[in-house]
Specification:
Number of strands: 40
Helix content: 10-25%
Number of helices: 14
Distance between the termini: 58 Å
Structural class: alpha+beta
Amino acid sequence: MNRLKIVFSLVLVLVLPKLLAQPLIKYSNGNPEYSIQWNKQFAQINGLIPEIEINDKWVSVKEFKSIRWEKKEGTRLSEVNNYNGKVDYLYLICENHPLISNFTIVFELMEGRPYLVMNSSLKASEKFKLGGIKLFNSAKENMVLPGNSKDWMVFTESASAPHTGGLMYPYQLNTKKAKEGTYSKAHTGVWLSMLVNDKKNCAFSFASIASELWPNNFKWELPVKDDFNKLKVAARSGAIFEREKIWVPAGNTITTDAFLVGYWENQRPTNVLLETGKIMGENVRKGKPMRFPEAGWSSWHSYDRKITEKSFLSSADFINKNLKEFGWKTIQIDGGWWTEPGLYSVDDFTFPNGIRYLSDYVNKLGLDFGLHVSPLRTNPKDPISSKHPDWILKPLYNKKIAKGDDEMATTVGTVYVDGSHPEVPAFSAARYQQIVEGYRPSFMKWDHTYGGLEEGVRFDSTMTFMQAHNKTIRAIRSALPDDLVVTRSMGYVFGALECYDAIRIGNDINHPGYKSEAEPFTNITYGKTLGTIEEERVEKGLIRFARAVAQNYYIHKNIAIVDPDAFFVSPLYTIDEAKCHMTLEAIMGGLFFFGDKVESLPAERLELLKNKDIIAVNKIGVHAVPLDLFSGVDIPTIWKLETKDRLIITIFNWMDKEVSKTYNLKTDFELDNSKYKLTELWTKNNFKIESNKLTLDQPAHTVKIIEFVKK
C-alpha cells in the first residue's frame, strides 16, 4: 500500500513503552487492504488482503460490495496478562456478497502491548461450502528483511504432537525438504510460527490463542526467486491439508479462532518464544491447573504389545524393592493390555486375573497405577462398527504404512469414531467412565487422538474436525474423576487442551516391535546420536529428540506439562549416552519415565537411576531454556535452568568427536560476572572460571550438567 495515495486513513497511534514498540494498523476506507507496523522500517507486514474459500475457490474480500473500517467498542478476544493499558478495537466490515451477508475481522490493540490479537466471523446468506479463511495474504512479498538474510530464521510448529516442526533459514523455504512433511509442511507453522533474529535480539511471533474451529496456519514463502530478504507470510484458518470443507447453512455464523501477531525487540528470541507460550496458555487453559504423575516406568519400550501380567508385576516388584526410595513411584501399563488396538477386551490367558488385579497389586506396594487408552480409537471387531456405521469417521485419504513405521504401526486395523455424530460423545464418555471405575488408575495416557482429527467426511457436515474432537474429548473428561491425571500423546498441541494435564512433546523415541536380537534390554531402534545436523529438520536418533524438545520448551507449565517419551539407561547406549538421555529429560522438568527392562539392567546402569542429584533436577519442575536454539540450525547444546534458588547450565556434545570449547559467561550463558563455584552433578567434579570464561573438553556423545553457586 502506498502511503502517499491514502486519502482517508486512520492510524492508531498509542503511547510507546520504554522497550517495546506497539503495532499500528494502517488502512484506507473502502479498501480491505491493510498493513501492520511497529514503527520500524523493517518491522512491518504490508499489503495484506483477506480471502475466503467459497465453493472450492479462493475469493478476495474485494468482491464484497460494501467495505468499511470502524473503530468502536468491542469484546475482549484475549485474556488479561502482564500488559496493561487501554484497549482499542478496530473492525474491517465487508458486506453484500451473493453468499455471505457479512464478513468482519476484529483487531484488538492494547496500549503498551507489542502484539495485536485478531479473529474473523462471517454470516451466510445462502448455503455454501467453506474451505477456510485467510485473515491475511498478499499478492507479493509483504516483509522485507534488513541485513544478511542468514541472520534471520523461520521457526514453525508442526500440526501434531508437537512432533518435528521446522527451523530454517529463509533461503530454505522453497526447498523440497521444506514443502514435504507427514503431518504438515515445514514452511507452514500450525498454532505457532516465528521469524527471529538472534543477533539483533528481535522476533516476530504468530500464535493461536484458541482452538475451537480450525487450526490457524502461518505459511512462509519466497515470492521472488533467489531474493531471500523478501518474504511472504499468510495466516489461514483451515484444515491442515486443506482437504476438509464444511457446509455453512443460510443464517449460520462461523467464527475463526483468535491469534496474535507481535514483534518484540531488545529481547532474546528464546525469551520471546517463552512469553508467547505463556500468552497462549493463559488464553487456552483459562486457569485450568496442570498436574504430574510421579516419576516412574512404562511397559511399552521393553514389552510393546507382548506385555503380560507376569512381566508387569515382576517389574513392579523390582521397582518397589530397588527404586521406590529414589522417587520412582508410578507403574504404567501401555498398549497391549487389550486384545487388539481399539478393542478393550482383556485376554484371559495373558492377564488371568484381569486389569483391576494389576491396579490393586501396584497400589498395595505403595505405587501408582497408570493406564494407556486411545479414547477416539475403535476397532472393526467392535460391535459399534457394525451396529452404528455412521459413528465411524471416513477419512479423506488413506495412509500407506511402511514397514518399521513406529507411529502408524500401532494404528493398523483400527478405525476412529466420528465425534460429530450426536451419540458418539455420550457413548465414549460412558465407555471410559466404566474403564476408570473398573481399573482405578491414578493417571491415564490418552494416545492416538490424531486419528479423530483426520480430515474426513463427517456425519455432521457443518462441523470441523476440531469441533468434533473437542466435543468428544470434553464429554469423556467430564465423566471422569477430577483428580485423575490425564496425559495426551500423539495428537495436536491444541484442541480441548484444558482436558489434559500434560502433553507429549517431540517424537516417540522408539520403534515398537522391532527389537534387536543382540540387545534384549529395550527397544530403541532410532539409533545412537548421529552428529551435527545442517538440515532444517532433524531426522534420526537422540539428536532428533533433542531438537524436538528444544523447540517446545515454551509449552511447559504454560500450555501443559511436558511429556517426553521414556528415557533409557540401556547398554544399547554407551554409559555417557545414557547419561545424555536421562539428563535431557531431567532438565525438562516434566514427566520423568524410563522404559528399560529394569530387572535385566547391569548394576552400573541401575545406579544411574539412583542418582538423587539428577532426579532432584527434574523435581524442580522448570524447563531449561536452550540458549542457542536460534543461533543456527544445529542441535542446541547449551541449556539454562534458573530459579530463585538454583542455577544449572547443561552442555551437550552431540558430535561424533571430542569438542574443546571456551564459553563466555555473559554471551554464552547469559550470566553476570559474579564469582561462582561450579559442580558437575554426575561426577561431582569442580570446574574453574577464569576471566569470566569456562573451558571444557567433552568427548563425543557426552553431557556436563553443572550447578553454579554464587560464592
